[in-house]
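Protein: Flagellar hook protein FlgE
Species: Rosenbergiella nectarea
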Amino acid sequence: MSFNIAIRGLDAVSAQLNTISNNIANADTVGYKSGRENFSALYVNGKGNGVLDQGVQQSLNTNGSVISGSSSLDLAISGKGFFALQDTTGGQKFSRAGYVQVDKDGYLVNNTGLKYQGYPAGTTTGAVSSIIIPPTRNGGTLSGVNLDEKGNVQASYSNGETATVGQVALASFANMDQLVPEDGTLWRATQGSGAAQFGVAQTGVLGSLHNGSLESSNVDLTSELVNLMTAQRNYQANTKVISTDSSMFTALFQAI
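Structure follows.
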C-alpha cells in the first residue's frame, strides 16, 4: 500500500515540478499567467490512499505589472478582460499580451500576425470584426497610427487629416478559469468558460487600457523558487518511501 501511495506522490510532485518550472521559464513572458498544481487527499474505504492531482489552476485574476512597451502602439490591460484576436482560420483567441502593429494590408495585428478584433468608429455594440486602417483619405496617404487609452485607433494622413477608424474590443467570460491555454500566450473559450462577452475598456466589468505599455508576467519568482525547493524535498521523501519498501521486500524474500 505505501509503495503505491509513494508512486502516486511521485507522479503528483513530478506534475508540480513541471508547472513550477514552466512558471520560472516564463517569468519574463509578456501577458503570461502563472499556474499552480492543485491536489486533494485520496481515500479508499475511509483509509488514506495517497494524493489526487486535480490539474493546474491558472492565476487569471492576478494582474502583472504595467511596463513600458516595445512600441507606442502597445496596450496593457489593468483589471479584467482579454484582447480578442482572430487567427488565420477565422477562429477567436484571447490574450493579455498587447503587442500591436499594423501589417502590410492595413490590419491591426499582434506580434504573430493575429488580427485584433474591435468595433467600427462610432459604435461599441454589435459584432466585433478585424480592425483595418484605410491607406488613403481624401487624397492623403497614411502617415501614422495612434491608439489612446480607450482603445480608439486614430489614423493620420499626409494631407493633415486625422480620423478614428475603430476601437479595440475587450472580452470577458462568465468563468474565465475554464479558458484553455495555448501556445503564444493565448487562451481559447470552452463550454465551461462560456462565450466571450465583448465591450470596450472601462465599461461593465472590463478594466482600463494603458497605451505604449505591456503587462508583464505575473510570476512571483521568489515564491516559485521556494515552491521548487519544497517540491524537490517532497520528491525525495516519496523516493525514500519507495526505497524503504524495496528494502523491506528484499529482506522478507531473503528470510523465506
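Remarks: Residues 2-60+219-255 form one domain.
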